[in-house]
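Look over both lines before class:
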Amino acid sequence: MITVTKEQLSAVEYLLAQSAQGNHVLFDVSVVREVFAQPASAMSEAEAYEVEHHIEKLISLENIRSQKAYIEKLPQTTLFRVVKTYFNIVENNIFENLRDVQ
């Protein structure tokens, strides 16, 4: 489970709101296209655990510049898993917000 502080929460909410509108500020568009051009595959428990730590690290970084620099250093396989997980979080957030409105 990923935990965030109150300070980090506003930054996370900003990123999720931007992504829900199609502005994926953390990821280069070409990377996102490449990730989703790949066939879907399930992550193992170990892979999901690894990605969780990368997402937590991203959240803990001070600003978008630091987050982007961190992302750029990830190996491609890990980066792709982080992107897919991030978009899964965005999608779940959108669905939860829709439920709250209804």
